[in-house]
Write a structure and sequence with these properties.
2 domains, 8 helices, alpha+beta, homodimer, 9-stranded mixed β-sheet, globular, D-amino Acid Aminotransferase, Chain A, domain 2, D-amino Acid Aminotransferase, Chain A, domain 1
Chain lengths: 273, 273
């Protein structure tokens, strides 16, 4: 089912600024066991993103009503719910007309068919050649300008590799193509600062909260490639996959290997409660 | 008139990767006096951009046929022709399905109603707060990830200001929101290197060719804000506006002022021949 501004439809106007400029944002929400997971946090992030992009999104109530319609249709079927908010249709070049109303798109997809044991036994990742650009005004936002992730994802077709790790312009480790990344070193957690690049993920935020509540030291910092190589544990996370331990990272001809560590397990347990 | 993959239509599927990720490119071509200006150069740039984004675009012949249909419809009416090529519809997340076929969109717009004397008397510009990010893999390409330009263009509504000048992460001058920028100093032309950011414009390329042919020194280099301030002449250019002399640039509380110089005039003349 796809709703565009509340109506069942699967197409939008060519003049929509999502098409013309990638001028919008998205959220990807897991619907499992009849629950729309972390929905309030997703909608909060969407509102913050709209504010940062100066998209005057005043249709949160309608969006929630439309989500209810979609969930009723899904009934008990698990799904991924994707919300796209664009600035709307038209304007004179890059300048949007002040009267433009944002476009709301809600679409549903089957949950991806990742092997269930990825959460148990972990996954293999690789370090991508494609770098993330840096821009404080776009950092952290889940916006529609995703060519860097698309190009990174073109780099491998080996099905044994489940995620690509992306570095910034200074060769520091930021995140996965579709996930955030944490490392554990000497009992402490670290994840990249996202003040210049990256997407501030919902599960990442949840982990920052959980670790604070449980007195597990967790720091947002700069993570170099050698810090990644020397980590005791590594995991990636997002709203759909939860937490995947990373047991091997290909970095050109060198492999970094990690066990599935106890802090990763502890966080998986805390997250599922 | 809008053609989507050769058919009259004004909408595309939600699953198109232009909407989902800004995964595509565009060209904006002037159609004036029955001529599609610099069309071969535009189509060449499109092909190069597709190659750099690994979009397997094999429909150049169809695209040209569709352009003919659009021109026949326009007859003698001047217009802007916008071509969008996206990677196509679908795929599993960032990874496109190998069978995906690119989407071709051709749309026409009235030529913008800029005052005709902008080319004569010049325009006022401003330096934007919004910075351009840097990424060698995207630099120069006219791709659909245009949030930086959109955000830059939200910064002003004063109709006296005709263009915003954008700096990179190192505060160097790169281009306008919709144009490339040249400066003249001591009889020599300079424009920004576009190896890390910016769009390599068709008129910019034309000017590089014209200056080489006419023994006018012209260098692609790094242009600092102080170099811009000290310039003898400044102009911006693109396929629709041609060359606009810039006579004033607002930089916060400071204004930089320039005459409409003779090299700018010489290039306007050379370009129109």
């Amino acid at each position: 089912m796809i709703l565009v501004n509340g109506k069942a439809d699967n197409r939008i106007s060519i003049s929509d600024r999502a098409i013309q400029y990638g001028d919008g944002l998205f959220e990807t929400i897991a619907y499992r066991n009849g629950q729309l997971e972390f929905v309030d946090t997703h909608l909060m992030r969407l509102a913050v993103g709209c504010k940062r992009l100066a998209i005057p999104f005043r249709q949160l109530k309608q969006l929630k009503e439309e989500l209810s319609i979609v969930l009723t249709e899904l009934a008990e079927h698990d799904a991924v719910i994707k919300i796209i908010i664009s600035r709307g249709s038209g304007g004179r070049g890059y300048l949007a007309d002040p009267s433009v109303e944002p476009t709301r798109i809600i679409s549903t997809y089957p949950l991806p068919t990742y092997p269930a044991n990825y959460q148990e036994i972990g996954v293999t990742a690789r370090i991508c050649q494609q770098r993330l650009s840096e821009n404080t005004s776009l950092a952290g936002i889940k916006h529609l300008n995703r060519l860097e992730q698309v190009l990174a994802r073109t780099e491998w077709h080996d099905p044994e590799i489940s995620e690509g790790i992306m570095l910034d312009q200074h060769e520091n480790v930021i995140e996965g193509t579709m996930s955030n990344l944490f490392i554990v070193k000497a009992g402490e957690l670290f994840t990249a600062e996202l003040n210049k690049s990256g997407v501030a993920g919902i599960i990442r935020a949840e982990i920052l909260d959980i670790t604070a509540d449980n007195n597990i030291p967790c720091t947002e910092t700069i993570i170099s490639k050698s810090t990644l190589a020397d980590a005791d544990e590594v995991f990636v996370c997002n709203s759909i996959i939860g937490i995947w331990p990373v047991t091997c990272i290909y970095n050109g001809k060198i492999n970094y290997n990690y066990p599935v560590g106890k802090i990763t397990r502890q966080l998986q347990n805390l997250l599922s409660n």
